[in-house]
């Protein structure tokens, strides 16, 4: 069996959880003969948000001492996590050396941003990638410490090549064969641990796939290597009928289709990256959303066929921080003509439309967009 396992931020939130993740990998490897596993990891919980927050503050304040202070705190945090997650002393030393090296790279970049007082989208992608690039060596080290050979890679290392649309990069055509060629020779003997969320341009510039992009990384790899299943390890039972933090009686959905999962993701369910389903639909590779705290539970299976329900709705989602823009006036003649002009302008500015409607009089067009894009 060939499986891609993705561990989200809450699944690698601290040293104990990373050790649990490593043990899950080892247990799965031992449970099935000839089990082939690729691991994809997110950053340690809340680290990416912290990096973005400090990068913006450093660019605004221009205080070099703040750079050293922040990077020192980040280095110490990851060293502490590694010390708990990794029992093997030589492996731990190697991982700590890598953490030291990568945080030194990060310090140089942040110092440059501080002195320039400018934070570009390209710089933000480079800085933001360090969350995963610091987590991957720790998880790989924990897997090694558990007794299985593991080696870590960035997204670019395994052939995830994108355009230069920093912040939400799009995949370049033909990368599937490259990813397959780089991953397949490792399977069986080693566990590849890949940084989620990250890719590279053809010129080697680091890009990111958008928030939650580690799910996307997992499905890109899964499609490339013809995985039997993709397992997304979360801190929930699976895909829920509503946000359990808001709705106390939210229930697990045992099965849902690709199309329904995409709809839920797009409309606010923080379970999957909205683009994560795309790479595996043609090959009909199932995705299973599993509970880190109850690994024997089957979780939610995402597959091709849709199932009917007698309930009013399978799930309810919420998109926060949205705004409505109304375009109205007696000068609106053809709704198709005005819509075409509006969409062209919005597309040129990369403004995504969540929902659209027009009044029955055809004199009003209403658009729902993210409030940040108003």
Task: Tell me about this structure.
Strand 12 (353-358) and strand 13 form a beta hairpin. This protein folds into two domains: 2-235, 3-Layer(aba) Sandwich (Carbamate kinase), CATH 3.40.1160.10; 322-373, 2-Layer Sandwich (Alpha-Beta Plaits). It has eleven helices and 13 strands. The strands form three sheets. The protein has an eight-stranded mixed β-sheet, sandwiched between helices. A three-stranded antiparallel β-sheet has the order 11-13-12, covered by helices on one side. It has a two-stranded antiparallel sheet with strand order 5-6. The chain is globular. It starts with a strand and ends with a strand. With 374 residues, it is an alpha/beta fold. Helix 3 (64-85) packs antiparallel against helix 4. The longest helix has 28 residues, at 89-116.
Structural class: alpha/beta
The CATH homologous superfamily of the largest domain is termed: Acetylglutamate kinase-like
The name of the CATH topology of the largest domain is: Carbamate kinase
The oligomerization state is single chain
Largest sheet: 8 strands, mixed
Q: Would you tell me the overall average pLDDT?
A: 93
**Secondary structure: helix percent:** 40-55%
Radius of gyration: 22 Å
Query: Which spans of ≥5 residues are poorly predicted at pLDDT below 50?
Result: none
* CATH architecture label name of the largest domain: 3-Layer(aba) Sandwich
N-end to C-end Cα span: 48 Å
Strand ordering within the main sheet: 3-4-2-1-7-9-10-8
Strand content: 15-25%
């Amino acid at each position: 069996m060939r499986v891609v396992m993705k561990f989200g931020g809450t699944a690698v939130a601290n040293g104990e959880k990373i050790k649990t993740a490593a043990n899950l990998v080892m247990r799965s490897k031992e449970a099935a003969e000839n089990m082939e596993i690729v691991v994809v990891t997110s950053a340690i919980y809340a680290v990416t948000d912290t990096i973005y927050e400090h990068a913006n503050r450093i660019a605004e304040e221009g205080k070099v001492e703040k750079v050293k202070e922040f990077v020192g705190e980040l280095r110490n945090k990851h060293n502490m996590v590694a010390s708990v997650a990794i029992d093997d002393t030589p492996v731990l030393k190697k991982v700590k050396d890598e953490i030291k090296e990568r945080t030194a790279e990060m310090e140089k970049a942040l110092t440059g941003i501080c002195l320039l007082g400018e934070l570009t989208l390209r710089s933000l992608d480079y800085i933001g990638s360090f969350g995963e690039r610091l987590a991957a060596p720790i998880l790989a080290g924990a897997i090694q410490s558990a007794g299985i050979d593991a080696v870590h890679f960035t997204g670019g290392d395994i052939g995830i090549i994108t355009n230069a649309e920093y912040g939400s990069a799009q995949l370049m055509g033909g990368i599937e064969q490259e990813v397959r060629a780089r991953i397949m020779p490792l399977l069986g003997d080693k566990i590849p641990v890949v940084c989620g969320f990250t890719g590279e341009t053809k010129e080697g510039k680091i890009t990111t796939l958008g928030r939650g992009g580690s799910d996307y990384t997992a499905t890109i790899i899964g499609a490339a290597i013809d995985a039997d299943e993709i397992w997304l390890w979360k801190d929930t039972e699976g895909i829920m009928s509503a946000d359990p933090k808001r709705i106390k009686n939210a229930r697990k959905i045992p099965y849902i289709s690709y199309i329904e999962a995409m709809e839920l993701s797009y409309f606010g369910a923080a379970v999957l990256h909205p683009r994560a389903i795309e790479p595996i639909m043609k090959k009909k590779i199932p995705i299973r959303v599993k509970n880190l705290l109850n690994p024997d539970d089957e979780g939610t299976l995402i597959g091709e066929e849709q199932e009917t329900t007698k309930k009013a709705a399978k799930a309810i989602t919420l998109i926060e921080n949205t705004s409505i823009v109304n375009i109205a006036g007696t000068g609106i003649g053809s709704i198709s003509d005005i819509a075409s002009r509006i969409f062209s302008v919005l597309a040129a500015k990369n403004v995504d439309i969540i929902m659209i409607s027009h009044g029955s009089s055809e004199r009003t067009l209403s658009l729902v967009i993210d409030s940040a894009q108003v």
